[in-house]
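> example.struct
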């Protein structure tokens, strides 16, 4: 019966979005035990299989991504949990001021969430390798962040760096991030129920001396143009 329900949902989305991108549906499992946000992505907490293993270049989805990313997403009655294993040979982070545009000169892990496609609002939560957060509420697709609405996600995050920070002379392995976002932060949004669907993209801005252009934008969503805010191309998280 459950299987039929998910197949039904799939066709609903296919119909709803036939003129839009090829959305992928990621099933998000509910957990009973709160995850310790300490930067250690343990199999006991997150399971062995990441939710997302494939990222696409945001400037050209046909080209292979240089820096790989694996993402885990879970939830409970209170929080949305996200973890990522982030390959990065040259870890860069200088910004320490919250909500500063200086963050975007660093390596950044970026989460875009649109709980309700019919609502104009969606949310962005960005974190660099030293845990500096930029979060914003957005209301237009291709919005310049300068017009973002003040929003505090209440995100709690922890990071483990495997390498040296801001040292281009050696080769780093990458960084791991764990974060939790209270559902109560989203205006008017209740904790999701089984079968609810949200739209989302996990993205990265990466700077590295090892990259051909010194920079790479990548996303879990197949973005048809280089714009992390084009939510028409976001994938779907299906709360199980
Ligand atoms: Ca942990
Ligand atoms: Ca980097």
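> example.seq
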């Amino acid at each position: 019966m459950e299987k039929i329900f998910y197949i039904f949902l799939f066709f609903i989305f296919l119909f709803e979005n036939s003129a839009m991108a090829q959305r992928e549906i990621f099933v998000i499992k509910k957990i009973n035990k709160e995850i310790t946000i300490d930067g250690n992505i343990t199999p006991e907490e997150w399971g062995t299989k990441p939710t997302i293993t494939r990222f696409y270049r945001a400037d050209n989805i046909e080209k292979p991504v240089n820096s790989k990313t694996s993402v885990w997403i879970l939830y409970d009655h209170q929080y949305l949990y996200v973890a990522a294993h982030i390959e990065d040979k040259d870890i860069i982070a200088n910004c320490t001021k919250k909500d500063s545009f200086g963050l975007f000169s660093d390596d950044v892990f970026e989460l875009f969430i649109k709980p309700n496609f019919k609502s104009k609002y969606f949310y962005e939560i960005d974190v660099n390798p030293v845990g500096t957060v930029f979060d914003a509420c957005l209301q237009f697709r291709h919005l310049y962040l300068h017009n973002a609405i003040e929003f505090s996600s209440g995100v709690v995050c922890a990071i483990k760096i495997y390498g040296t920070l801001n040292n281009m002379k050696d080769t780093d392995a990458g960084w791991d991030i764990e974060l939790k976002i209270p559902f109560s932060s989203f205006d008017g949004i209740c904790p999701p129920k089984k079968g609810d669907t949200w739209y989302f993209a996990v993205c990265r801005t990466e700077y590295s001396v090892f990259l051909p252009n010194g920079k790479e934008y990548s996303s879990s969503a197949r973005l048809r143009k280089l714009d992390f805010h084009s939510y028409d191309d976001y994938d779907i998280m299906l709360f199980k």
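> remarks
The domain at 24-239 is CATH 2.60.40.1190 (Immunoglobulin-like).
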